[in-house]
Amino acid sequence: MSPAGFEALRTEALACTRCPLAAGRTQVVFGVGDPAADLMFVGEGPGREEDLAGEPFVGRSGKLLDRLMAEELGMQRSECYIANVVKCRPPENRDPRPEEIESCRPYLEAQIDLIAPLVVVTLGNFATKLLLDTTEGITRLRGRAYPFGAGHLVPTFHPAAALRGSGEVLAQMRADLVRAKRLLAPGGLR
Ligand code: URA
């Protein structure tokens, strides 16, 4: 990982006006954590709290993510890297539009290239479909690891789905994180 390259990318993103989401943001939510981490999480896009804080996953979903990270991986957010598909908040927390995702995609791809994580955990449909280049939904895609770069991609539900849904969603998220942990271990196997 080149620290200078990562900082240059961040500086570029913070001034981005490539799509209309720029007009409504308080700030760009580039990402947080250790750019040299082996593990990267990719969510959908900032919500109101993230837009205000300038940091991904600081609201209710983020609290759950922090808890699952601690309980299943024994890690804190500072030990991995967390980013989103889109770096600016969609108004009223609507879904990001295809053209917004396309405009923002080079930032995420560059983040992944520079961090070069061993394992990427995608949270929910948007990140999973984008990075696996598929139209298949998360329910069908989760439950296994996929080759990705020099490592693996582990798709799981978005924490908001676990907050809304049944205990089963949460249990499946836990199982997916255990899969990620195994892949992170030296000589990690699926
Ligand atoms: N949901 C996301 O997908 N990302 C965030 O940063 C917060 C909530």
Verbal overview:
The chain has 190 residues and is an alpha/beta fold. It is built from nine helices and six strands, in the order ααββααβαβααββαα. It has helices at residues 3-14, 21-24, 48-53, 60-73, 98-115, 125-132, 138-141, 159-164, 167-184, and strands spanning 32-33, 39-43, 81-84, 119-123, 146-148, 151-156. A hairpin with a 2-residue loop joins β5 and β6. α4 packs across α9. It is globular. The mean pLDDT is 96. The structure holds uracil. Uracil binds next to α4.
The figure for the number of domains is 1
CATH architecture group name: 3-Layer(aba) Sandwich
Could you tell me the radius of gyration in angstroms? 15 Å
Range of helix content: 40-55%
Provide a quick synopsis of the model:
The protein has 190 residues and is of the alpha/beta class. It is 47% helix and 13% strand.
Features:
single chain, 190 residues, Uracil-DNA Glycosylase, subunit E, six-stranded mixed beta sheet, 9 helices, 6 strands, 47% helix, 13% strand, binds uracil
Q: What is the strand and helix layout of this fold?
A:
Elements: H1 3-14, H2 21-24, E1 32-33, E2 39-43, H3 48-53, H4 60-73, E3 81-84, H5 98-115, E4 119-123, H6 125-132, H7 138-141, E5 146-148, E6 151-156, H8 159-164, H9 167-184
Parallel strand pairs: 2-3, 2-4, 4-6
Antiparallel strand pairs: 1-3, 5-6
